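Memo to structure team: turn this sequence into structure tokens by end of day. - J.P.
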Amino acid sequence: MIKKYIPLAAMEKIMKTAGAMRVADKAKVVLRDALEDIADNISQNAARYAQHSKRKTVKGSDVKLAAKM
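Reply from structure team:
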């Protein structure tokens, strides 16, 4: 099983800030899963960009570039 890193309380806060009055537990889990999938994809691509530049360190510019793709 894959460890989840983003707390569900953060998902509720994001959704309430966006205008939700109440948030179902299942909605928090689904949002967390979606955001973690997106973050995983961006992280993998950013790491590839750093490697391509012959660096071991992922920079903010790598993340920005990966997020645009």
